[in-house]
Amino acid sequence: MEKRLFTSECVTNGHPDKVADSISDAILDACLAQDPDSRVACETMVTTNFCLICGEITTRAVVDYPAVAREAIRRIGYVYPGVGFDADSVEIQCRIHTQSADIALGTNDAVGGAGDQGMMFGGACTQTPELMPLPIALARALSNRLTACIRENDLLRPDGKTQVSVEYDEQGNVVGIDAVVVSVMHSAAFGIEQLRGYVRDKVIAPVLARYGFSVEQVPHIYINPTGNFVIGGPNGDTGLTGRKIIVDTYGGYFSHGGGAFSGKDPTKVDRSGAYMARYMAKNLVAAGLASRVQVQLAYAIGVAEPVSVRVDSFGTGRISDEKMTELLRNSCDLTPGGIIKKLNLRRPIYAATAAEGHFGVENRPWERTDLADKLKEMANL
Question: What is the pTM assigned to this prediction?
Answer without folding.
Answer: 0.95
